[in-house]
């Protein structure tokens, strides 16, 4: 049973008169035990991992603050909204999608919020006021919220391409201390193939670099940093996630009030094509850009990308909190364990991703990563095993970790020439 709000065109709500819903004929999908129908909406099963991350931090936020009001401005079939409602136990979820054909489908999926869970004995009137559906332009919805001072704990903007129009309004419609979940699928800008598009959409001039997929995350965060600064706010990433299908770049940001932009984590990345060394540069050091390698300098041998985010991609404490909650929910049991809603494969992937995010959060790691095959190519040696190489780097006092973006790479503050030297002393077998 759905609920139709009679007071406005195109607005459906759980807080009004009940009307029967038209049936949507579609095979039922399931994520982590939550069933839903897709209908004519776009749905990608591979993105369920990113939805897992969003649900976990939403639940952690509710535990920490006692409040979770969610605005999902590009809902599609509503799988994210339903999971926020049922799994993160959101107090209220507003699901919006501009497509008129999805309204009944959204209502059908969100009506699961009226069902009794295993521990509930009764449903009060407030349980029927936990969700709302609209079919408005996402940009308009966000601006209206800011104008009415109707702020949310978490705003999910699942956009595609290089559409950053909603980034600023989303930051303006979230509570101080709240979360904004941003998405981009602009692999061409991340790869430096559309530099002027990147400049207009993200405020960064992006040159081709060998860690393009990390650039995709950093330019998206950098865009949010710039938008927040114009509103006397700051944003810092709770976690950032790259997925190869698409590609898809996602980041969950914490929004705080601050009157001045602190630019230590907002700057430029410099890369030397001759030696393969990259470094982070502050605004104050732009006039001193150079590479200290012994190779003769040629025009274009040193390239600069930015301004963008050059700080940590994740908040270690928050990711550890997400990990603990995922373990409590049985989402990351040991491989081989299985619950009704979790396959061993899903559990292993989520567990490994959270572990790598914690590794990537260690202090001292710069932007970018070094692919193992590049070390072998530049040093003219067989490629060392990644794990052995990371152990060797840490023994030498360098920060080093895996990369969740590129499994054949390491993140380290060790200079490239030292990486090559250490590569000679590591176990020389080809990485699989």
UniProtKB/TrEMBL annotation:
It catalyses: guanosine(26) in tRNA + 2 S-adenosyl-L-methionine = N(2)-dimethylguanosine(26) in tRNA + 2 S-adenosyl-L-homocysteine + 2 H(+). It is an enzyme of class 2 (transferase). It holds the Pfam family TRM. This is tRNA (guanine(26)-N(2))-dimethyltransferase. Keywords: Methyltransferase, RNA-binding, S-adenosyl-L-methionine, Transferase, tRNA processing, tRNA-binding. GO terms for molecular function: tRNA (guanine(26)-N2)-dimethyltransferase activity; tRNA binding. One of its GO terms (biological process) is tRNA processing.
